[in-house]
Each structure stands twice: as C-alpha cells, then as structure tokens.
Amino acid sequence: MNQKIIIAIDGYSSSGKSTLAKAISKKLKYKYIDSGAIYRSVALFAIQKKIFDSDLWNIRNFIPLLKEINLKFKWNKKHNRTDIFLNEENIQYKIRSEQVTNKVSLIAQIPEIREKLTLMQRNIGKNKGIVIDGRDIGSHVFPKSELKIFIKGSIEIRSYRRYKDLKKRGEKISYEEVKNNLIHRDMMDISRNIYPLKKSIDSIEIDNTFLSIEKQLNFIYQLINKKNNHIII
Predict the structure, then answer these.
(1) pTM (2 d.p.)
(2) Which residues touch 3 (CB under 8 Å, ≥6 apart)?
(3) Which residue has the higher pLDDT, 108 or 233?
C-alpha cells in the first residue's frame, strides 16, 4: 500500500507554485491546499471590514474579528478545482484582485494571524496526502514534509505572468505597476520578522525562468520517485 506524504512548495509571488502544485495533486490524487489563498481570504475579510481605510489602522482592533472568519475548501466539479469559501461565500475570484494583492503582505506580517492560519494548515495536513504551496510551508508550517521544493524566477517573467492573468480578468493595470507591486511584495515577504520567505536547507530549488511547466513537472515527478520508492507515478 502506498504511504501518503506531504509535498511542500515554497517560492516567490507569481513564480508558478500553484500551477505546479495543482498538477502534482491531480497526478497523485492528493488534496491541493493554496496557503496564499488562505492569507488572501483574511486580507479580503479585512478590506470588507474597512480596517485599511485609515493609515493608522490598529492591528489590535482587528485581531478579535478573526473569530468571525470561517474558511472552507470545497471541490468544484464544474470547473474541476478546489474553491475557497469565506463565511459560506465563494471568494475564489475576489481574492485574486489587485486590491487584495496589495494588502495581503500586511496581513501576513501579523503574528496572531500567522499562528491561527498555521494551525489551520497543520490540521488540514494531519493525515498527509497533500500538496501545499506558500512562503513558509517547508521552513515552518510542515518542516518535516517529505519533499520540499523552492520555486523562483526572474522578476520580468513573474511580472508578465501576473500581468497577463490580471488583464484576462479585466483588471486595468499596466505591466510596470504589476512589476513594481511584485518587487514590493518580494521585499515584504523576504524582510518580515515572522517566518520570512526563505529556502529551507533541505529544499530543492528550481529556477523556472526558462523552464516549461512540462519540464518542471517531469523533474519533480523524478524527485518524488527517487525520494519515495513507495510512490509510483
């Protein structure tokens, strides 16, 4: 009988982590967890509560509101994907707006929020059999995960991917704005005091600037078979 494992994929914003994670989960029939979507959901909740309306918003006033958040992942048969629900509302598309993108790094720096969401993720993965992507999955959330991947790519390629995605959704934004936002996001992720974005010592790094998704997947499938003889792809 095959023993299920945890596959942790960390990396920079718009580096293609979720694309890889979804493809791997589909191949292995594992549950896919987008940790970034969880943080984006909290950022959306904060926006809905208008806590960013003042430059002097008080984090302590927001923390008590966290108990009002109820997040669930549900399989969408029609679109063959996992959707995330905030208090019973499907927010799959809302959390991808540039407004949420611009605020999520602020939310991710709050220790109380990271603690709450880390526990949530660990609870989801307690039975293993998951592929999860984010910023600190391998280094903090699941430090004992059996396979850790760290994805990076040039700022130009990542910006272009993000720009195309936003334009497809009808957002009015320039490539330069997207690039500047990503540079700012990288700085926030790398420099935050609480579990910053960093490559774990036992993570396998992939620079996908010039790698197709097919080549990345083939490489990762080889790693899975090599590191885990009980999993056959």
Answers:
(1) 0.83
(2) 228, 230, 231
(3) 108
Cα–Cα distance, 38 to 106 (Å, whole number): 14
Kindly tell me if the per-residue pLDDT of 163 is higher than 50: yes
Mean per-residue pLDDT for 40-49?
94
| Cα 119 to Cα 95: distance, rounded to the nearest angstrom | 21
**198 pLDDT higher than 80:** yes
H/E element, 220: helix 213-227
Strands (E), the chain: 6-11, 31-34, 71-76, 81-86, 89-90, 130-134, 147-152, 204-207
User: Measured between alpha carbons, how far is 185 from 12 in angstroms, rounded to an integer?
Assistant: 9
Q: Which CATH superfamily is domain 6-34+97-226 in?
A: P-loop containing nucleotide triphosphate hydrolases (3.40.50.300)
The answer to whether 208 touches 149, Cβ cutoff 8 Å, is no
Q: How far is CA 134 from CA 60, 146, 148, in A?
A: 25, 16, 11
Angstrom distance (rounded) from CA 68 to CA 108: 18
For the stretch 100-129, pLDDT in tens is: 988 888 888 888 889 989 998 998 889 899
Q: Where are the domains of the chain?
A: 6-34+97-226
Q: How far is it, in rounded angstroms, from Cα 81 to Cα 196?
A: 29
Instruction: Give dist(CA 50, CA 53) in Å, integer.
Output: 5
Measured from the Cβ of residue 79, the count of other Cβ atoms closer than 10 Å reads 9
Residue 78 binned pLDDT confidence (cut-offs 50, 70, 90)? confident
